[in-house]
Amino acid sequence: MVISNIFRYLILILILVVVLALGVTSCGDQDGSEITPSSNSSNNQATTTDNQTGSNYPTDWVKHDPGGNTKCSDGSSFSFFSRDAVKDKVLLFFQGGGACWSEYTCNTLTTYKATVSENDNPVYWKNGIFDLGNKANPFADWTIVFVPYCTADVHIGAIIRDYSGNLIHHQGRANSQSSLDYIFENHVEVSKFFVTGSSAGSIGASFYAGVIANKFSHVSITLFNDGSGGLVTNNNIDLMTILGASNGIPLWVFEKQLNDKSFTLNKTTSAELVIFNWFNRKDMRFGRFDDSKDSTIIKFNTLLGSTNGEYIEKIQKAESLIEENGIEISGFIAKGSAHTILGYDRFYTQETDGVLFQDWFSELVKKGQPEDVHCLDC
After folding, report:
1. 251-308: per-residue pLDDT in tens?
2. What sign results for the dihedral spanned by CA atoms 102, 108, 109, 115?
C-alpha cells in the first residue's frame, strides 16, 4: 500500500513537471514570436555596427582645437575632427551650411551656421559616407579629416566684417588651413586623397584640392563636388571684397587663367572650379552629384541675382564647359529638389536611370571614371 502510494505520488510529480516544462516552452515560443525589432532597438543596433561590420579600424573621432587665427563667425572657437584608419588613404570633407554677404542675408535671413556645436561632431553622423559600419561605404577604412563650417564664406573668407552691428568673422581660410596643416604634419604616407564637401563645402573643397595637389605632387587626387553644380554668380555682388576672398583664396588659383581671365568669385560657375584645378594638376580626377531642381541652390541663386533659365540648364552648361576644355568628369544628376547626397541615407538608395548611386560613386573612389548618369525626365 505504501509502495503503491509512493508510485502514485511519483507519477503525479512527473506529470506536473512535464506540464510545467511544456508551459515554459510555450511561453518562450510565444514571447519569441512577438518580439520584433522596434525603432529603438534598431537605433541601438546602428550605434554598435561600427565595431561589427563595415570598418576594420576603430571609428573614434578626435577633436582638434587649433586656436590661433581660427574662429567661427560669431567669434567662438573653431574645431575640426579626424578619424585615423588606413594610413595611405585620406578623405578630406568640408561641411556645408549656407553663406551670407549682406545685412539682409546675415541679419534678416541668417542663411548660415554661426558656430561649431556638439552636433557637428561626426561621431553623431551615422548616415551616408559617415556610416562607417556599413560594408557598402567606400570610405569605411579610410582616414578622414572633417572640416566643420561656421564662417558663412564657403571656407575661403579672410576678413572680419560688421553688418549693421552684427560682427561676423569670415575666417574660413584660417580654419581650413589649420586642417590642412594637420594633414601635412601627420599624414605624409598618403598615396590617395579624396577631397569633397557638400553645398558650400563643395565650393571650399575645390580651392583646397589644389593646395593638396601642389603639396603632394606624387599622389592620386580626386575632387568630388556635391550639390553645387548649378550655382552661378553674375558680378552682381563683390564677394571677393566682402568676404575677404582676395586674401583667402589660395594663391595657386590666381596663377591660372581661363580665356585670359583670372578667377573671381564675383562672376563664376561650378565649371571654373573644376577647370582651374585641372590647369593646376592635369592628372586630377573629377566627379559631381546634383539634383535637377535643387531648391537650396535655386534659393541662393536668387539671392545672388542669378535667376535666368532652369536650374538643370545651369548644371548642364557647366558640365559642357568642363568637357569642352578637354576635361573628363563623371556627373550624376538625380530628379528632384533635394540638396546634396553624401551625408544622407539616400547615398545607398538613390537610383537614376537604373544605376545605383552608391555603385557609381564607389567606382569613382576606386579610381574609375564612371559614365555620366542623368535623369531622363528631370
Report:
1. 999 999 999 999 999 999 999 999 999 999 999 999 999 999 999 999 999 999 998 8
2. positive
pTM confidence score = 0.86
Query: What backbone torsions phi and psi does residue 186 show, to the nearest 5 degrees?
Result: -120, -10
Interatomic CA distance for residues 57 and 50, integer angstroms: 9
Separation of alpha carbons 152 and 154, rounded Å: 6
pLDDT tens digits, 173-224:
999 999 999 999 999 999 999 999 999 999 999 999 999 999 999 999 999 9
The DSSP output letter for 78 is P
CATH fold for domain 49-374:
Rossmann fold (3.40.50)
Separation between Cα atoms, residue 143 and residue 87, nearest integer Å: 7
**Closest among 363, 375, 295, 365 to 332, alpha carbons compared:** 375
R_g over Cα of the chain: 27
> Cα–Cα distance between 274 and 113 in angstroms, integer?
26
Contact call for residues 266 and 239 (beta carbons, < 8 A):
yes
Q: Where are the domains of the chain?
A: 49-374
The 3-state DSSP class for residue 60 equals coil
Q: At what angle do helices 295-303 and 311-324 cross, to 10 degrees?
A: 90
What one-character-per-residue DSSP string does 164-215 give? TTEEEEE-HHHHHHHHHHHHHHH-TT-SEEEEEEETHHHHHHHHHHHHHHHH
Q: Number of C-alpha atoms within 13 angstroms, CB side, residue 376?
A: 5
Where are any strands of DSSP class E within 95-165? 142-147, 159-163
Integer Cα distance of 89 and 238 in angstroms: 38
Here the cell at position 338 is 533635394
